[in-house]
Write a structure and sequence with these properties.
heterodimer, A: 146 residues, mainly beta, three-stranded antiparallel β-sheet, B: 385 residues, alpha/beta, nine-stranded mixed β-sheet, two-stranded antiparallel ribbon, 13 helices, 12 strands, globular
Amino acid sequence: MTVYAPITPAADQLTAFFWDGAKENELRIQRCSACKRYQHPPEPVCRSCLSFALDYGVMSGAAVVYSYAVARQAFHPWFADKLPYVLAVVELVEQPNLRLLTNLVDFPLDSLVVGARAHVRFQQLADGVTLPVFGPAQPAEGPVQW
Amino acid sequence: MVSRGRRVAIVGVGYSEVGRRTGLSLDHLTAQAAVAAMQDAGVTPADIDGVAVHSYPYQFVSANHTAAMLGIPDLAFSSSSIEGPAYSAAALHGLAAVASGSAELCLTVRTVHASGAASTTASHGASAAIAGPQQFSAPYGDLSGAHFAALYMRRLMTTYGLTEEDFGAFAVAQRDFALANPDESFFREPLTIDQYLESRYIAEPLHLFDCDYPVDASSALLFTTEERARDLRQRPVYFDAWAHATTNESDFNLVEDMTHTAPWRAARRMWSRTELQVSDVGVAGLYDGFTFIAMQWLEALGFCGEGESGAFVRAGHTRRDGIIPTNTDGGACNVGRRHGANFFIEVTRQLRGTAGARALPNHPTVGVVTNGVGAFVGCALLTVD
């Protein structure tokens, strides 16, 4: 039986901090040293003030589900035995509209809603590669009205 | 009204052979469509001095090679767009070239192979490591347009109470148009709402029948000035107004408001550039890469209120005798994924009176065409004198 490798991120100079952070179980998001705004995905320049002085901050991991979809078809063979899996866009509590595409894990599908509170977890994808994903917030709280 | 240069007419339209697996190269399909459009217009390659194509790098057909292959002697204008709202990207470049005087007669083309439609695997290839912005999405299994579409649909359902039955009603209504277009439609039987709801989920809440139908196809349209159009074979169809719009995010998943993406900006921009009103429009070709996209355009253009597209479609207002007959060829869900060009071609045929048995009883003189959703879109108003 063919064993397929997962799709992995090819970290580069701009993005290494994010993936290095995930390995350390930290959710790191790019932050402008001048205006202190966060932005994701990382860019070479601050979208808010055009400063090139960029660093990162470590997030609390608290987030709210902006939208989600339950993937039922695999578009890459590695995902065939992962179905169904949940794709989601979550908004981090640190800044309005600061969002990531991610997977939701351990949410019961029949009660999952937009506005659900979520918290980051770290899932090893391959040797040396860890993905930040999101599970239910603990202790559970009611969804945010959105 | 702000001047937008010379008045531009669509004077020829053409398709290649279209099929699931034609075995024809991208160049071959492109040449077939271009020749068909030239025959439709009654022009020769020597008359053409501009080419605008839209083409992704992994299925690339260049404007310069298209011209050389067809024996077009000299390009005063050339554009090979690799990002933007599909065919309408080529259309907006081509019509701007004619309007500005950069070209006199411009060929615009969109060519696709079915293999590029279903997933981004075609563009990623076999490589297991993904660089660039997709490193933040592909490892999570975000690999298909169906994935952003499902995220948008869930958000619309939550915000407005839209339902799967609403999206299904659009698929059902559109299939009925396709039944009257047997030469182009890939489907011969009506679609029932139960069949739609029972069709498998690609990514819940998105069903198989929300998706356009991947095909090998090329589509070509010829644009020229009002003066030259008068001497050509077909009744000219004019661009009255047009618009392009983007969101401030280039990533479809990260647009600020999934319920108000670029169509809302483009529609506002287009209406600001015309004296026509939404009530003047008698036929619509609204991009249906996924059903909800056409429905977002119905709202953005003002055919119905915000969040009301589901009720509007279920009431039959997009059907042949409805308020705004929409996708009268059957749309890309039925005639295949021609990536936006079929809407320009079908609305042109309706307006100039070459739609045959599909000719609408309301004899429209104004039509609207749209392409895209999310991060970048294009749209235009077409008229006949």
